[in-house]
Amino acid sequence: MSRKLFPFFAVLVLLALVVTACGGGGDTSALQGEIDSLQSDLDAANAKLEEAMAMPAETETVEVAVTFAGGGDTLAKVQGLGVLNCGVSGGLPGFSVPDADGNMTGFDWDYCRVVAAAALGDADAAEARPSNASERFPILQSGEIDVLIRNTTWTVSRDTSLGFNFAPTTFYDGQGMAVRKDSGIDTLEGLDGGTVCVNAGTTTEKNLADVFRSRGISYEPVVFAETADVRGAYDEGRCDGWTTDKSGLIASITILADPTAHKILDETMSKEPLGPLVRHGDDNWFDIVKWSVNCTILAEDLGVTSANVDDMLGADDPQILNLLGVEGDLGQAMGLNNDFCYQIIAQVGNYGEIFEANLGVDTPFGLTRGLNAQWTNGGILYSPPFR
Amino acid sequence: MTESITQIQEPVGKRFNWEIFLQDNITGSWFQAIWVLLLTIFTISYAISQFDNLPLSTGIILGGWVIGIFMVVRGELSLKHSRLSRWLKNNLISSISNTILTLLIILVIAFSINSIWQWAVVNANFNPLETTPEFRTEEGATWGVIFGARKLLMTGLMAPEDSWRVWIALGFILVMWVLTLVSGRPKLKEKLKALRTVVNTVWLLSPAILYLFLAGAPNNPYNIKLMLIAEVGILAIYLLLWWQKVVQFYWRSFIITALGWPLLYTIWSTIGTSEFFPPINVDTWGGLLLTMIIASAVIVLSLPLGMVLALGRRSEVYGIPDWIVWPVAVGAMIWGFTTTPVLLETSRNLIERLLAFWPLLIFGVAYILQRAFKGNVVAGASTTFIEFIRSVPLITLLFMGIVMAPFFLAPGVYTPKPWPVIIGYTLFASAYSAEIIRGGLQAIPHGQFEAADSLGFNGLQKMRFIVLPQALRIVIPPIVGQFIGAFKSSSLVSIVGLFDFVGISKVVIANNEWLGLRTELYVFMAVVYFLGSFLMSSYSRRLEVRLGLGER
Amino acid sequence: MKQEVSPQLQEDQKGPWWRVFLSFIFDVRVLGVLGQIGFILLVIIIAQTIGGNFSENASRLGESQFICRDGTFSYRCAYDFMDSESGFDIAETMIDYVNTDPYWTAFKVGLLNTLKLALLGVTLTTLIGIIAGIARLSDNWLVSKLALWYVELMRNTPLLIQIVFIYFGVVLALPALKEAIQPMGLPIFLSERGLNLPKLIFTSSASIWIAFLILGIIQFQVLWTSLGRREERTGQASNRVALGIISLVIVASIGWFTASAVSDTQGMLVTKGSRILDVGDLVKFTLRRAKVNHIDDIAALPEEEISAAAFQVCVLEDSSSEANLTRHLRGLKIPYNIHRTDRPDQATAKFADGTCEAFAASKSILAAERATLENLTGNIIISIKESPLVWSLPVLEGLNMVGGSKVRPEFTALLMALVLFYGGSIAEIVRAGILSVSKGQSEAARALGLSEGQRLQLVVMPQALRVIIPPLIGEFLSLSKDTSLGFAIGFPDMYAVSYTTMNQSGRVLQLFVLMMLVYMTISIVFSGVLNWYNERAKLVER
After folding, report:
1. Which residues of chain C neighbour A193 with C-beta distances below 8 Å?
2. Which of B127, B465, B552, C320 is the most buried (most CB within 10 A)?
3. Which residues form the signal peptide (chain A) (predicted)?
4. For chain B, how many helices (H) and strands (E)?
C-alpha cells in the first residue's frame, strides 16, 4: 500500500484499539468484577461446606447470615486469600526466629498459627512477615499484615493515638537489666556513670530514660536499631548493662559467648504486657483474635490439651463443650466455624503447651511461668467464660 | 645517588663525591634529615622486635635487603647493572630514605601476612560441624560457619523446597552465557547468525524469564484491558519512531512488534494459570540471591531511566510559551489566595502566617520554569528530580520506600519488601547515571550536532544515529564504576530490614551454633564483594580495549 | 513571545484549511508543548491519586498522624508533636539536652552531630586522600603498590561492611576500661569505651589573661608590620618571626602570672576547727590524719587507710573549681575524695552534716551559702589560687572516667571508616589531578633546582587542584550523606535520632519530609560553597 496512507491506517487501528480497551474493556471489567465477587462468595461457601463435611458428626452446621459488627472486612480478606499475614519479629529467640531451614518458630509465631487455625481452619496457613521495631506499626496500619504478634507492649498511646486494639496479653513481662556477674552491680544505682545498651525507638529506651532520671542515675546510652547489634555490643563489653524485656534478656543471654557470666538484676523497671494487636475499625476481627487467645488460656484452665482434645469432645462439662464448639453457636457469631477452638487446640495446643514448647523449662530459656500461670496457680492468666 | 650525564670511562668509585651523596640523601633539607633519622630509629626498633618474634623470616628479609643493597652499589660502582639491580635501583633502593623505607615496609608486610595466615589458615578450623564455642580458639578462624550456614548465606530465608528455582535460574544464565560466547566467536559469526538472534532475543526477555523462575508467575486472570492498553502504547511508540524516520517500515519488523507483546502476555498468563511456576512469597528472598537480584535489577533499570533523564535534562523541546504559563499561574494564584484569609485567621504562629501565602509558591515555580528552563517542562522536571535525588542519602530513600509505600498505595495492597527497595534504589542510581551520561553527552563536540543538522537529521534521528552511540562509548568506564557502586551499596538494604547478603549475617550469628562468629562472616562477605567488584572492573577494562576507547 | 512561522507553514497556508490545521498540529513544537501540558496534567492526576490514597489511609488510622493539641484533625498540626517531650536520651550531644526536652531539640542534636562528623570527616579524608594519592605516584615500588592495594580494597568493599567491621572488630576489640591503654604514662586512656583525653578549662581568671593575650597579639602585629617595613627598606633580615614570638610569649606569661596573682574568686569553705588557712595547711592536716611523717609515705599505706585519710571535699557539677582544686591537691600529693552535687544547697547540707570537710566553689557562692549555715563564725572561706587555664584530667571513678573530654567509640569507628573509605576515592582523584599536570612543568621545576617537595608544593599541586576540586565536591557530598550509616553502629546522627523519634511518636511522614529537607539544604549549601571555591580556582578559559 502507499506509504502515505500508512499513517492514516495506523491511526485508525490505534483508535479502534483505544476504543476497545477503554470502552469495551470497561464494560468487561465491570462484569468481570461481578463475576469475581460472586466466584469468591461461592468459593467461601464451598470452603465452609467442605469444613462442615470434615468435622465430626456431633456438630451440626447451620448457615447463618452473619453481620459483622462495626464494619471492616479483614476476615473476608483473610479467608479470600487463604493466608493469614502475620507480623513477627523474626530475630528474637524463643518468640519468633527462623530455624536453620528458614522455617519460623517461637511463642509469637505459635500464636500466629492459633489465629490462622481459628480463621482458616489451618494453622499452617499463617505467613510470617518479619519486621523491625520501626516498621511494625506502619505495616499493620496499612493492611499489609492482618495481625501483629511481635512482643509488643500494650500502652495507651498505641491503643489510642496509633489506632490499634490489643488482644489479651499473652505474656506478662517486665523490663529488666542484665549485667555481668563480676561487675559487682546489684541494683540500678550501681550503674551510675556507666553505659547501657538499648534498642532504638522502643518503649524500653523511654522507660530507661524515665526510670534513671527519676532516680537521679546518670548513664550513657548506646543505642542500636537491631537487637543483634545490641547483644553483640554488650557481649563485647561496650556497655555495663543491657536492658530489654526480661523474657528477651533470658532468651538472648543463652546465645551470648559465656551465658554463665551474666545475671539479670532483680529490679523490674516497668510493666510490659505483650500481646497481639490489630487495627481499629474491624470489631469482628478484633473479637476473633481476642477469643482465639482466650481459647488457649481457658483450655489450659479446663485441662484440655492437644493430646486429649478429641476425647474431650465427649466430656460432661458444659464449659468444655461450649469451648470446643460442640454446643452453642459461639464461632458463627464471629463468622467462624463453631469448632474454631477445637482446631486451635488440636493443631497448636493450649497456652501451657505453647509456653512450654517455646520458652519452658525444657528449652534453653528455661522460663518459669511466674505471672504467666493460670489464676488458680498463682499467675494472672484469666479468661472470660465461653458462653 | 648521583648519576653523571656524560659517558665516563673510569669507574665511578674514583669520582664518588661523599658530600654530594650526603647532600642528596640526608642533609639536603631539614625535613629530609629528620625524616631519615626517624625512619632509621623506627626501622631499627621494629626490626629488633620482629627478630624476637620471628627470627627466621626477619633474618631472611634482612639478608635479602643487604644483598639487594650490595647488588645496587656494585652496579653503580662498576657502571654495569643487571636487569634486576637496575630495577632495584630505580624502584626500591633509589635513595637512603627509600632503602630504609623498603626494609620497614617489607618487615611490616611480612608480619601482617604472617599473622593473617596464622589466623586464617594455620590455626583455623574448617570443620562445619565444629563451630560451637567449645571448638573455637582465639588465634584461629572458625570457617565452619561459612560451610554450615551456606544455605542461609546464599538464598536467605527461602523455603528449602523452593531452592530448585535458584538452580534453574543459575543453569539458565550459564547456558545463555555459553551460547553468547560461542555465537560471538569471530569465526562462527556468519554461520550462527540465527542463533545469535535467538540468543539476543532471549537476553532481552531474560528479566521476565528469571522473574518467572525465581518468583513464579502470578495467578491472575487474563487482563484484556492491560494487554490492549500496552499494545496501544507500543504501537504509538512505533508510529512515533516511524513518523520521525528513526525506524523504517518493514512488514516483518512491524508484525513482530505488534504481535510480540500479546503473544508474550498470553504465554505469561498461561504459565501463570498452569501452576508450573507457582508464585512464592518474594519476601523470602535473601542472602546473596537477594543482593544479586537487587543489584541486577537496579543496574538494568537505572541505565535506560538515566538515559531518559539525561536526555530530558538536555532537551531543547520548545517550551510552553509565556502566554500559556503566566495566565494559568496567575489564575491558580488568585484561586489560591481565596484561601489565604481563612488561613491567616486560624494561624497560630509566625510560620503558619507565612505559610498562608502559599500561592506565592506557584509564582515561584512558574518563574523558575520560565526563566531557568525557558518553559521546558521536560528539562525542568528532569533537573529537579535529579538534584533532589542526589541530595538525599540512599537509606532515607530506601526506608521511605518501605515505610511509606503502604500509605501511598490503595489500602490493603500487599507489597513485598524487595519491590519498594528496588524502585527507590533505581531512582537513586538513575539520577547518578543521568549525570554521568550527561557528562558523556557534553563531551561530544558541537561539530557532530551541527553536521547532523546540516545533513538533515531531525532530533530523534540525531540522537539515535549520531549522538548516543558516541556518548555511550565514552561513558562506559564511569558507568561501570556506577554499577560497581550499585552492587556494593546494595548492602545498605540490610539496614532497612531486608535479609540480603549482609543482613542475613545477623540471623546466622543468632543461631545457636554460630554465635558471635562475626569476624569470619564479615571477612567472607568482604571477599565476595571484592571478587565481584574486581571482576566487574576488569571486565570493563577489557570492554574499553575492545571498543577502542581513548584510541581515536 | 511571537511564534515563528516556518516557510513551510506559510506555503501550506495557501492550501485548504484542513491541510493548514494538520500541519499546525503535526508541527513538532506544537506537539511538544501539548505533550508537556499533558505531562503536567498527568503529574497532577498521579499526585491526586496518591494524595487520595494517603488521606484515606491516614483517616483509617483515626487521623492520628495529624492530631492537633485540641484534638481536632488538621494537616496544619503536622509538626505539633515535635513540641512534646522526647523521652529518650542521646549519648553524644554538642548542646545541652535532657530527655525532657522536646523532639525539636533532639533533632537539633542529631543535626549537629551529623555536621560535626561531616566537617571533620571531610578534612581528614582530604588529608589521607592526598597522602595516598601522592604515595601512589611515589618512586618506591613498594609504597606505590601498597597505596594501590589500599585504594582497591577501599573501592571494592562496601562502606557498610567496613563500618561494622571497624566498629566490632577493631574498636570494640580494644581492652576494657579498667585495662585501658595509656601511651607513655600520659593521662590519655584508649579503651573500648572510647578515648579519654585531658581537657583545658577556662577559669574565671581567664578573662584577665585573655586581655593580656589580646594585648600581646596587637603588639605582635605592630612589631610584625614595622619590622617588615624595615626589612623592605634596608633589605636586611630582621628576625621578626623570632622576635615577635618571643615578645608574645613574654606578654602572655606576664598576663598569666598577673591573672593568677590578682584573681581571687575561688575559695573553699572550711570549719575554723580544722585550722586550714590555706591549701598548704592541708598537708599537715593529712599527715596528722594518716599518722605519717612525710607526704610520700602515704602512698605506701594500704588502700583503706589512704581512703580514710583522704580529704573529703564537695564541689558543684561542671564547675572549674574541681579542676582547680584537684590541681593543687595533686601537686601536694594529697589523697582526696570528691562529692559532686547539682546545687549549692545540697553541697552545703553535706558540709553541714560532716560528709564533706570542705566545699570548694567560687567565693560569691560560698559567701551566700555560708550565710545560711547556723554557725556563722565557725566557718571560714579561704582563698585558692587559680590559673587561667586548668587541666581537667580523666580519672577512673566507678564505672566510668570522670573529667577530661571523651571521644566515643561509635564516633571514632564511623570517622575512621568514612575517612579511610573516601580516602581511597580521593587518592584516585588526586592521582588523576597530578597526572594531568604536563610533564614539562615537573621537568622545568627540576631544571630550576627545586627540590622534590618544593616541586610538588609550588608547581604541581596548584595546577592539579583545578582538576581535583570538581570531583572532590562530589566525594564530599557523598561523605556527608553517608554519615547516616552511623545508624548501623549506634551513632546518634540525624537519621538515627529521626528514626527513634518516628518510633516514639508514631509519626513517619512528617519526619521523613523534615529529614529530606535538611539533607537537601546541607547538600545545596555545601555544594554551593565548594562550587564558589571552584570558580575561584578554575582556569579562566578563552
Report:
1. 397-400, 402
2. C320
3. 1-21
4. 26, 0
CB atoms within 10 A of CB A4: 7
Chains that touch A (3 or more CB pairs under 8 A): B, C
For domain B287-492, give the fold.
MetI-like fold (1.10.3720)
Global pTM reads 0.80
Q: How many CB pairs under 8 A join B and C?
A: 161
Any idea which residue has 624502584 for its cell? Answer: B91
Q: Delimit the CATH 1.10.3720.10 region(s) of chain B.
A: 287-492
Q: What is the pLDDT of residues C308-341, one digit of tens each?
A: 878 888 888 877 888 888 888 888 888 888 888 8
DSSP label of A198: E
Q: Calculate what percentage of chain C has a pLDDT beyond 90.
A: 20
C chain contacts of residue B88, beta-carbon cutoff 8 Å:
none
Residue B325 touches chain C, beta carbons under 8 Å: no
State which H helix or E strand residue A138 sits in.
helix A136-142
Report how many domains make up chain A. 1
| Partner chains of B (3+ C-beta pairs under 8 Å) | A, C
Does A200 contact C172 at a Cβ distance shorter than 8 Å?
no
Q: How far apart are CA B73 and CA B99, in angstroms?
A: 12
**Chain C contact for B30 (CB, 8 A cutoff):** no
Q: Which of C67, C399, C500 sits opposite A240 (nearest CB)?
A: C399
- What are the cell numbers at B78? 662498576
The answer to the question of residue A247 being in a domain is yes
Q: Is the pLDDT of residue C27 over 90?
A: no
Residues within 8 A of B (CB atoms), C 354-383 only: none
C-alpha cell of residue B227: 494487554
Query: Helices B418-442 and B394-408, interaxial angle, to 10°?
Result: 130
Domain assignment present for A366:
no
Count Cα atoms within 13 angstroms, Cβ side, for B186.
Answer: 0
Q: Which of residues 326-385 of A touch B (CB under 8 A)?
A: 364
Length of chain C: 542
CA dihedral C370, C371, C376, C382 (to 10 degrees): 30
Pairing of strands A219-224, A194-199: parallel
Under 8 Å CB pairs connecting chains A and B tally to 109
The answer to whether residues A242 and A260 touch, using CB atoms and an 8 Å cutoff, is no
A237 to chain B, any CB pair closer than 8 A? The answer is no
Instruction: Report pLDDT digits (tens) over C74-97.
Output: 677 778 888 888 888 898 888 888
Q: Is C154 in CB contact (< 8 Å) with chain A?
A: no
- Please give the residue of chain B at the shortest CA–CA distance from C476: B391
Q: Which of C62, C489, C500 sits opposite A201 (nearest CB)?
A: C500
Residue A380 lies in a domain: no
User: A214 touching B, CB under 8 A?
Assistant: no
Which strand ranges, in their side-by-side order, compose the sheet holding C189-191? Answer: C189-191, C194-197, C405-407
pLDDT of C10 > 80? The answer is no
Q: Which of A42-51, C9-18, C426-435 is most confident? A: C426-435
Q: Which three cell numbers stand for residue C182?
A: 595509656
Domain span at residue A211?
Answer: 174-271
CATH of the domain at A232: 3.40.190.10
Q: Does A255 touch chain B (CB under 8 A)?
A: yes
Residue A237 covered by a domain: yes
Please provide residue A101's backbone torsions phi and psi, each rounded to the nearest 5 degrees.
Answer: -90, 0
Kindly determine whether residue B91 and residue C141, on different chains, have CB atoms separated by under 8 Å.
yes
Q: How open is the CA angle C495-C499-C503, to the nearest 5 degrees?
A: 170
Q: Which three cell numbers stand for residue B297?
A: 535489577
Pairwise CA distance, residues C300 & B525, whole Å: 54
ipTM computed for the complex: 0.84
Identify from A139, A205, A217, A223 which residue to disrupt to test chain C contact, counting C C-beta atoms within 10 A and taking the largest count: A223
Amino acid occupying residue A332: Q
